[in-house]
C-alpha cells in the first residue's frame, strides 16, 4: 500500500473534496483522483462518495481514515526523527491577513524559508475569512478575537484595539462619551460587525452604523484620517497616526478588550513540526 495514496486520502477526507486537497498537496486534481482510485482498488471498497459539492466519507471511509491518519502521522514523525536536527521539508501553506501580513508577517515567513532551505513556504494574503480546511491551508495567522470553532489556536502575542477618529471629525461632530452616543456617529467598518467594549468587568457589544466600509484595515485607517468617521482598529495599525496627531483615541473610558495574534490550524492530535517551528519563530519575532 502506497503511503502517498494514504496521505492523499486523508487530505481529501479532511478537506472535503478533491480540489481543496489538490491545492493543499500542490498537485493536479487528476493526480489526486488517480491515487484515490488506486487505493480503493487495492482495498476493494469505496472510501469516498463523490458529490457535486465535494466528497463525503462512506462508513468504511470513516473507519479507515482514522487508521490512515495515524499511519501518516507516525511516518511523518519517523521522517522528522531521522532528518538532521532542526531541518524541515515539504510544503507549508499559510493564510495571513492583508492589512498586517505583508508588513509584519512577511519578514518572519522569509526567515523561516531562509533557515530551512528544503521547506517550501507559500503565503497567501487576504483580509477575507479563509476556510483553512476547505481551502487546503496548513495554518493561518489571525488577528483579533477568535470565534468559536473546532480549529486549534495558539496565541503568539496580545495586542489592544482602540476607537479612533481624526481631530477634524471630532471638531465637526464631537467625541462620543458613552456606547449609546457612539450609535449616533459614523462608524468605519469591515461589514456588519459588533464592536466590543468594556465597562470595568462588564463586556459591552455595540452595533454601529456607517456609510463607509472596507475589508482591509489599512483602508479603514485612511478613511479615519480623512475624517469620515470613527474606527475600531488594532493599536499597531494606528500607532504612527496617533503619534503624529492625525488620529486621536476616543471613548477611552470604555476600552476595547485585549485581543491577540494567533496561529490556527486544523484539528489533529499531532501538529506538524513545521507549524510548531513557525509559531515559535513568530513568538520570537514579536516577543
Intertermini distance? 45 Å
Under CATH, the topology of the largest domain can be stated as D-Maltodextrin-Binding Protein, domain 2
- Count every helix, treating DSSP H or I runs of 4 or more residues as helices: 10
- Which range does the strand content fall in? 25-35%
Look at the structure and give the mean pLDDT: 89
Q: How many DSSP E strands? A: 14
- Backbone shape: elongated
The strand line-up of the biggest sheet is 4-3-5-14-6
Tell me what you see in this structure.
With 287 residues, this protein is an alpha/beta fold. 41% of the residues lie in helices and 26% in strands. It has 10 helices and 14 strands. Keywords: DNA-binding, Transcription, Transcription regulation. InterPro entries: LysR-type_TF_proteobact-type, LysR_HTH_N, LysR_subst-bd, WH-like_DNA-bd_sf, WH_DNA-bd_sf. It holds the Pfam family LysR_substrate.
What is the fold's blueprint, element by element?
Layout: H1 3-15, H2 18-25, H3 29-43, E1 48-51, E2 54-57, H4 59-82, E3 90-96, H5 101-115, E4 119-125, E5 139-144, E6 152-159, E7 161-165, H6 167-173, H7 179-182, E8 186-189, E9 195-199, E10 202-206, E11 209-213, H8 217-225, E12 230-234, H9 235-244, E13 248-249, E14 259-265, H10 273-286
Parallel strand pairs: 3-4, 3-5, 8-11, 8-12
Antiparallel strand pairs: 1-2, 5-14, 6-14, 7-12, 7-13, 9-10
Helix pairs in contact: 1-2, 1-3, 1-4, 2-3, 5-10
In short:
The chain contains 10 helices and 14 strands.
